[in-house]
Write the structure tokens for this entry.
Amino acid sequence: MTFLRVLRWELYKLAKRRASYLGFGLCVLFSLVVMLGFAYTSWRGLRHHGGAIALQYVNGYFFANFVLQIGFVSLLPLLATVIAGSQIAGEARDGTLRALLVRPPSRTTYFGAKAAASLLWLQVMVLFLIAFALVFGLIAMGGGDFMVYVWEYRRMGPWFAGGHDWIWIFLVSGAGATMALFMLGSLALMVSSFTDNPVVAHVTTLGVFFISSIVQRLPDEVIDPGFKDMMPTKHMSYWHELQHLFHPDPSRLDVGRLWNDFAWCSGYTLLFLAVGLIVFARRDVTA
Amino acid sequence: MVLSTEGLSKRFRRRTAVDELSLTVERGDVYGFLGPNGAGKTTTLRMIVGLVRPTAGVVRVLGEPLTSRHRGALARVGAIIETPSLYGYLSGRDNLRMLASLGGGCPESRIDAVIERVGLTGRERDPVRIYSHGMKQRLAIAAALLPAPELILLDEPTNGLDPMGIRSVRALVRSLAHDDGLTVLLSSHLLSEVQQICNRGTIIARGKTVWEGQVDELLATRTHVRVRARPVDQARAIIERAGGSADVDPEDPGLTIVRGGPEPEALVEALVAAGCRVGEITRQTPSLEEIFVELVEPGEPS
């Protein structure tokens, strides 16, 4: 009960803070820019993908899926970092952490509630990005069949989702993407518990994200695949595999890859949360 | 006993901020916690409410030892540590609602009551970011009062306030103690504040206790009588015969400082009867400030 009470107030604070809505504004801006980019290039970039993409299928569903995939490696990591990285360090900087910690709930409860609030807010933001891109895409490009095209699986070619599967594809992808992004959120929360300056948490987390993303893309001759496997970002895109849950051919679902990447991601998330909790529970609040 | 610390110490790396501090606050006390800036007052208060982990020692709040796992006693403690820190983007009432809820909840009527108690009625729906410093301080006091505490800890509550704000906060603190019967621990480096408000207290310097006891007694033991009488040696002998200690003021050899012994009236009578010429006799109670300097910086002229 205490946890739910604290969580409720953490969400209330997020909802009442103007800065929390900056992320939604960026989601809108991101979708608009991608749409403008599509229109400006007259779709010719898409036309050249081995002829696999027929322009009649470049519609609202395709656009929303595209925005989610691109947003996942550009905008959403930034938002996940800022939301979670401000949770503890932001309150320490503003002095409000003192007001909370002189109340009876334990630091473990506060940390858990802040982690859960970050996860929920991130989930809302990811779903908002999908919903906005979908509505905007449907208005601008119309509807039709949902051609699922994931860059990672470009060699296998696109496939078509049946009936109303698009709803489930977006919901499952949104949930999976959020869980994967929360690994970065938990890293930001961990760093946030070391410092009284949220900028330190943001910069450190984004630094780790960029370094990891670059290292994982280096050729195998330079960096051994075994080492690359240890990079946190290497496993974040497992949610792409979740879309295969709705593939007409069930054999396309690579359960092994799904579990392996999910386990790596969850392991890192739990590790970051555990270290963050230990530090937060023991630290002296002097700000 | 409402609050006690035993051998409380805190070291930050090589620096000792608080060194084996022991203090006892009894029910009904308005307890002054005095010390110069950097003496370790805020660190001590932070340890009392669990913001900082002691390196050694024990804190007992309302009879219960306070640890990271046993924080229940904090539900009956109101605390303002350093500057009032509240959420600027929430209204005053929302801040109080949230803090009340985190403390276990309380009815809206209680929130109304504390808002009225600190004089913020009519402004409670405004966002805190537009409050003046004095209003934020009063809102912080309201937050501290929410759980109907038995003990309230106030860390330099008049810091940064204008004279009207200082007067208003002091009146409020006095009223909390006298009208509401709260036990108050007031940390301050303003001696006049402690002298005006507190009955008991502690003075700390460099993390160590240099005095603890009744404020009145501290002032009384330092009260002395200044005597200017001639001949000086004869006057001094008479004073000592009457049971007082007589010291010559090093800056003014004609002035004798008398501690203990008879009352000034009897002293005048004895001196005149012995044929001394009395030019001046004054009872002098030093200010807490003078005593403070004497205790904190022994050897420094007060």
Q: What stands out?
A: The beta strands of chain A are 146-148, 159-161. The mean pLDDT of chain A is 91. Chain A touches chain B at residues 5-6, 8-9, 12-13, 16-18, 94-96, 98-107, 281-282, 284-286 (CB under 8 Å). Residues 2-282 of chain A form one domain.
